[in-house]
Every structure is written in structure tokens, then in C-alpha cells.
Design goal:
By secondary structure, this protein is an alpha/beta fold. It is 39% helix and 11% strand.
Length: 96
């Protein structure tokens, strides 16, 4: 593929909630290899929206569980819903 044929597609990522991030005693950062999308989008908006049926929730539910375990400990959360994810994601920068 020649350079003029290449398209750079951007996915907006970063710190979800700056104030919450700064207050954290422990900082957790997940850097993901790639995004499963065909066009640019806002990752943070996508995750906080929590649209049911969206692809990839298995990965994001696990990231929420791992973050909870690393930051606060506690029992394994079997069912992860939108509110649970939102409460966890505000503690992270999300990077792809």
C-alpha cells in the first residue's frame, strides 16, 4: 500500500475523569493493542454510553473487574452492568 492510499483512523482515548484520576492513590493504566472498528470514534463516550449489544463488552467488562480488584479488592463481580463500568472507568485513562 502506498502512502497516499493509507488512511490514519483515530480513536479518541485518554483520562475519563481528570479529577478522579488525580485523587487515586494507585494508578492503573491499560494500553490496548488495537481497536475493533472501521472508522474513528470517541472511546470514552462509547464506554460511558454503554450501548447494549455493542461488540467487545467481554473485554471491557473484564477490564472493569481487573481495575476493581487492583484498586479496591473485593469479590469477583459476575454480572457487570453499565453503572458498574462507569464507576470503574472514571478511575482510568483508557488508551488504544
Amino acid at each position: 500500500m502506498q502512502n497516499d492510499e493509507m488512511q490514519i483512523e483515530m480513536v479518541k482515548d485518554g483520562i475519563v475523569d481528570q479529577e478522579t484520576w488525580e485523587k487515586q492513590n494507585k494508578k492503573v493504566l491499560f494500553v490496548l493493542k488495537e481497536v475493533d472498528a472501521n472508522e474513528p470514534f470517541d472511546l470514552i463516550e462509547f464506554l460511558l454510553d454503554g450501548t447494549p449489544g455493542a461488540k467487545g463488552w467481554r473485554t471491557w467488562n473484564n477490564i472493569a473487574r481487573w481495575t476493581q480488584a487492583l484498586l479496591e479488592g473485593g469479590e469477583y463481580v459476575e454480572k457487570v452492568d453499565v453503572e458498574y463500568r462507569k464507576n470503574i472507568y472514571i478511575k482510568l485513562p483508557l488508551l488504544i
